[in-house]
Specification:
The protein is built from two helices and five strands, in the order H-E-E-E-H-E-E. By secondary structure, the chain is of the alpha+beta class.
């Protein structure tokens, strides 16, 4: 039983975790600088690295959350572009590399407004 639980935990960690949340806003709400706002979208991804963040076991970076998650969700909602409001990721260089000594967990997130 214990071996099965550890195997399931290891498999879950290797798959990583991604999440995309969105809420539809009306065109009259003033949340976008240009164009008609469609939705506010938030994308999050957790990753897993090894050896001082040099080896990505599960990828989590700004390219993943902005291009593959945030923009993809906006296009699926009928938007033509995304106004990026916030983006952040776990630093991996310099002293931050020490946090990924053997196995490290990284996090990336982005928030944007989908606009027609």
């Amino acid at each position: 039983m214990k071996k099965a639980v550890l195997t399931a935990l290891a498999a879950t960690l290797l798959l990583g975790c991604t999440s995309v949340s969105s809420t539809v806003v009306s065109g009259q709400d003033l949340v976008a600088q240009s164009g008609e706002p469609v939705a506010v979208i938030q994308a999050n991804a957790l990753g897993l690295t090894a050896l001082f963040h040099m080896v990505d076991l599960v990828k989590s970076d700004l390219d993943t959350v902005v291009n593959k998650m945030l923009v993809a969700e906006a296009k699926a909602m009928g938007a033509t572009k995304v106004e990026l409001k916030e983006a952040r990721t776990t630093p991996r260089d310099g002293l931050y590399a020490l946090t990924g000594l053997i196995i490290g967990v990284t996090s990336s997130s982005a928030v944007g407004v989908a606009v027609k």
